[in-house]
Write a structure and sequence with these properties.
Largest sheet: 4 strands, mixed
Strand order of the largest sheet: 3-7-8-11
Order of helices and strands: EEHEEHEEHEHHHHEEEE
Number of helices: 7
Helix content: 25-40%
């Protein structure tokens, strides 16, 4: 037995409950993108093909029985940066962003140290994030017949439970720019401004530094060999 623990997966055919496919498909249909809290939560984003390559290597690598390996890429981005990237690739306005009340116990950061995997097997991720996320967006654009039926029926009931009853904390309006990772970006090439509710004011905050470290004990996610791994 070899145990693996992965970071957040993304890629084609991912169930639209997850952040990337949910936001891509919502944006395609000009529906709001529900961002929890202030959107500062960070994740290490692993393309599903890189994940599967690592699993295949570990399945055939000699002499590692009983070992545990983390699988990640060390490329941490917060939800706002992901959202900004998806809107840019789709040519959609930032006014689709809707800040909603955070879910209880929402983890601020998921990250894994995959240096053991690289040291023992030589594995390295091959898909740069910008390439992988662009290809993922294109896949969902080209396969609306795959995800539209999924987002009906039971999924709509789930979506309403998860987001429909949450308090809206703020929206993005045309008028003032917001910035992500130090770079200013405006939807529809206009300026946008945050309009929070008076109860809680979400802020546009840069993600944690790339060299931030977290105890490996936080890497507790179960691995699945597809892009439906937790997101």
């Amino acid at each position: 037995v070899v145990v693996t623990r992965c970071s957040n997966n993304y890629g084609p055919r991912q169930y639209p409950e997850k952040l990337v496919p949910l936001f891509v498909t919502n944006a395609i249909d000009d529906e709001p993108l529900p961002v929890y809290g202030n959107g500062r939560n960070t994740r290490d984003w692993l393309h599903v093909r890189d994940h599967c390559d690592a699993l295949l290597m570990l399945a055939t690598f000699p002499g590692i029985e009983g070992e545990t390996f983390n699988i990640g890429v060390g490329h941490e981005l917060d939800v706002l940066t992901i959202t900004d990237t998806l809107l840019r690739l789709l040519g959609k306005p930032a006014s689709l962003i809707r800040y909603v009340e955070d879910r209880p116990g929402h983890d601020r950061r998921y990250a894994v140290d995959c240096s053991k995997l690289t040291r023992v097997t030589g594995w390295q991720p091959r898909i740069p994030f910008e390439q992988g996320i662009r290809e993922t967006v294109q896949w969902f654009q080209a396969h609306t017949d795959w995800w539209r039926p999924i987002k009906q029926g039971e999924f709509r009931a789930y979506y309403e439970r998860m987001y429909g009853q949450r308090k809206v904390l703020g929206e993005v309006k045309a008028g003032t720019c917001v910035s992500s990772r130090g770079a200013s970006r405006c939807a529809s090439r206009s300026r946008v401004s945050l309009t929070p509710s008076p109860q809680r004011a979400p802020t546009w905050i840069r993600p944690a530094p790339q060299n931030a470290r977290e105890s490996p004990s936080r890497s507790h996610l179960a691995v699945r060999a597809d892009s439906n791994a937790r997101a």
